[in-house]
Design goal:
heterodimer, A: mainly beta, Porin, 16-stranded antiparallel β-barrel, 4-stranded mixed β-sheet, 2 helices, 6% helix, elongated, B: mainly alpha, 0% strand
Chain lengths: 441, 69
């Protein structure tokens, strides 16, 4: 009896030690901190705001985590967000006069002044998303995390699942991670999906109808393999290779592209009755992405450096480099300041172009695909931020961070006439503010 | 070929690592030394950049898309 009790005690200490060591290399590193009897709750509020009355977003997030039994854990995340503001509709600015566009509903119009970047100001959305991750210990050195997520927006829904297996080696100095995931997404565009490369029909009249196509779907599968290695007593590194394939409807149902003549003037010749000089954009129906990701975490005397690099490439022709740097500067009493720098640069997709030439008036055939979505263009994003966190009481922490983001775009491909004198894609500046509170409950 | 050279370089780097014993993991065990010290910060950042850039992924799998504008 005594022996059994002692044996149990030894086992319990061993499993606790194992769990503590486990946490060093776990993807969800906080798992070991949330005990069996307590929930670790993080409640955050993100306020994202773009300059020039573009997109504003308010997003509360709650993350709840709890240990289950000796080695398992569950993580639940709930997000709601509310988006308002204006977003580029894909058309180019022009100096030839006011431009008129049809709203996504197809039943009304809006205008953009000469020389101004065309923005759709009716952009609104509400999103609710929930994800549940369950981490199950398979043995002393291996575990698997099962993930489920659902995302519902006004015009979009996504359901996904994932499984991530982790195996430790070398006296727990190395961890192999293998993950697979899938997501099934559906677009329910406002006013139904616009047929790709169909001209935008004047929404203020009722004689000609916009070609429409209801809703549409896409499927994404992800695969990754990663290696995490303890380099020495104060340095940890991670290497990941990832692959992702999407197929289905990958076009943005609201984005258009300007149709111009050889001088860059809007030109609706031959597009049909009541047509504006814009076509709804068209993208390929499959996309294959590859990533290489490296991260290093290094402990200095007190402070911690967290540096990562990602190389991304896809079969749309986009290549990107991302550098991300955090420096955690320890203050007294458990508080810290954390400056953040991020640099991102990407090349444009092969089918990215600012406009298409009018097929009728210029005798030029339409390309197979075309989009002027700035996110598929050539640009650089720089972000600078600062986070401050302080303990509140024994088990709680309050944090806030401020980040400033800038995107600067380059022109790509052939420009026609007046396009050479206009700012085709103005810089984007955004402010990110986040407040966070974490506690054990 | 590039991939093989790349993996060889990583293998060479990793083979130079010293094995850190459990009792030497005091610094590595600190929450600030986690690969992702704040899951929420990372999640929110990924969501923002997913909506504003043409690249995604690198750190995990799944998560679902969004109809971001």
């Amino acid at each position: 009896m005594q022996l059994n009790k002692k044996h149990k005690q030894v086992q319990s200490v061993r499993s606790k030690l194992a769990l503590a060591t486990c946490s060093l290399l776990q993807v969800t590193s906080q798992s070991a901190q949330a005990g069996e009897d307590q929930w670790k709750i993080d409640a955050d509020l993100l306020i994202y705001s773009e300059s020039d009355s573009r997109v504003s977003l308010v997003e509360p997030v709650v993350n709840m985590e709890k240990g289950i039994g000796e080695d398992d854990s569950i993580n639940i995340r709930i997000i709601t967000d509310s988006i308002t503001g204006s977003t580029p509709n894909g058309a180019l600015p022009t100096n030839t006069g006011v431009q008129t566009f049809t709203n996504p509903s197809g039943k009304s119009i809006y205008t953009t002044a000469a020389g101004k970047n065309p923005l759709n100001s009716t952009f609104r959305d509400q999103r609710t998303a929930i994800s549940v991750d369950y981490t199950q210990a398979l043995s002393r050195l291996s575990r698997i995390t099962w993930g489920l997520n659902a995302n519902k927006e006004y015009d979009y829904s996504a359901f996904g699942g994932s499984a991530t297996y982790q195996q430790e080696f070398n006296n727990r100095n190395s961890t192999l991670t293998v993950g697979v995931g899938t997501s099934s997404d559906t677009w329910f565009p406002v006013g139904d999906k616009n047929t790709e490369f169909a001209p935008m029909i004047d929404g203020s009249q009722t004689t000609t109808a916009q070609p429409k196509g209801g809703e549409d779907t896409k499927t994404t599968t992800d695969f990754m393999v990663g290696w995490t290695q303890i380099i020495n007593r104060s340095t940890l590194m991670q290497f990941n290779l990832g692959m992702s394939n999407s197929s289905g409807y990958l076009t943005d149902p609201y984005k258009i592209i300007s149709v111009v003549d050889i001088n860059g003037n809007p030109d609706n010749t031959g597009l049909g009755a009541n047509s504006f000089p814009y076509l709804y954009e068209k993208r390929p129906d499959s996309r294959s992405r590859k990533t290489f990701f490296w991260k290093g975490v290094h402990h200095l005397t007190e402070d911690v450096i967290n540096l990562s690099y990602r190389y991304f490439t896809d079969d749309w022709g986009i290549k990107s480099h991302t550098l991300d740097f955090h420096y955690r500067y320890e203050l007294n009493g458990g508080s810290y300041l954390q400056p953040h720098l991020r640099y991102y640069s990407q090349t444009a997709a092969d089918f990215y172009q600012h406009s298409v030439l009018n097929p009728t008036s210029t005798g030029t055939a339409l390309p197979e695909f075309a989009s002027n979505d700035y996110r598929l263009g050539e640009f650089v994003t720089t972000t600078m931020g600062l986070k401050y966190a302080m303990p509140v009481g024994k088990d709680s922490e309050f944090s806030m961070r401020l980040e400033l983001m800038n995107q600067t775009y380059n022109t790509v491909g052939t420009l026609y006439g007046q396009q050479n004198t206009l700012e085709l894609t103005p810089d984007l500046n955004a402010t990110i503010i986040q407040f966070g509170y974490s506690l054990y409950w | 070929m590039k991939f093989v050279i790349f993996l060889s370089l990583i293998a060479a780097l990793l083979s130079s690592c010293t094995t850190v014993q459990p009792w030497e993991k005091d610094l590595l065990a600190k929450p600030s030394m986690a690969l992702t010290p704040s899951e929420i910060d990372s999640f929110l950042d990924e969501h923002i950049y997913f909506s504003k850039e043409g690249s995604t992924g690198g750190q995990g799998v799944g998560g679902g898309g969004c109809g971001c504008n």
